[in-house]
Design goal:
- By secondary structure, this protein is α/β, with parallel strands linked by helices.
- Helices cover 58% and strands 10% of the residues.
- Strands 2-1-3-4-5 form a 5-stranded parallel beta sheet, sandwiched between helices.
- Helix 3 runs antiparallel to helix 4, helix 4 runs parallel beside helix 5 and helix 5 runs parallel beside helix 9.
- The longest helix is centred in the middle third of the chain and has 22 residues.
- The chain is globular.
- The structure holds cobalamin.
- Cobalamin binds next to helix 3, helix 4, helix 5, strand 3 and strand 4.
Amino acid sequence: MSKEAILEAAKQSIIEADEDAAMEALAQAEEEGLDYVELLSNGYSAGMKVLGDQFGMGEIFLPELIFATEVMKLASSEIEKKMGTVDVKSKGTLIIGTVEGDVHDIGKGIVASLVKTNGIEVHDLGREVPAQKFVDAAIEYNADFVGSSALLTTTMTVQKEIEEKLKEAGLREKVKTMVGGAPVTKRWADKIGADAYCEDATDTVNFIMDWVNNL
Ligand code: B12
């Protein structure tokens, strides 16, 4: 099976919320030695994007999104198991979470696992996390990076609050902040004073590694 065909099968498995097809695509990917990150981004996540557009246009409804989410979560957790973690001394610590009022945690989870596999200690605070909790965790774990995910235009403001609260706590110079999520842009990151906008999990790893290497 060609790479393109496997990616397409992964994408379709999400669109159709078909768990068996999703696992079949993963098995094929493994057999062909396909890059798991590519499988996640250009396969399964591409399927979520199609559903998001259909949902936005009123062509599908919430239950269909929820079914697809379950398949997406299964696929990403299986991939996380396969990628394993690197057994080296931690190169830094990341606090990550989805902001208050927002339950979208698939993308955040993917970012967390990919960063972890690159030797960074990750503390995932989960979803619907208030700004202050990011700050408290940054202190508790002596974090180098704080990353927040927002998928709703209405919850992006919490990312701004995180910046403000980090400043109040005197931590803003110490940590690098990263923002992500579908409605988030580089412009938004600049506007609120975040250090980086990362488009996807690979982008996030590149940003972190650049920073770690320049320490
Ligand atoms: C799946 C989904 C859901 C699922 C979420 C399940 C879950 N556990 O996550 C369910 C069905 C529960 C849901 C609910 C709702 N949803 Co919804 N949902 C989506 C959908 C289709 C896909 C999101 C997704 O998982 N994408 C796949 C992942 C891999 O991509 P990603 O999240 O963008 O993450 C990548 C990057 O953004 C980046 N990244 C993400 N986070 C971070 C963090 C950091 C630190 C960094 C560096 C990078 C980074 O890296 C990730 C990996 O590459 C989007 C459509 C879309 N285009 O995003 C709508 C969407 C986000 N939802 C939407 C809406 C409106 C809702 C609801 C309000 C619907 C309702 N009427 O109830 C509720 C909100 C509930 C709430 N309070 O949060 C709208 C938002 C509109 C807006 N502009 O505000 C969207 C855009 C759909 C649409 N077109 O209308 N949703």
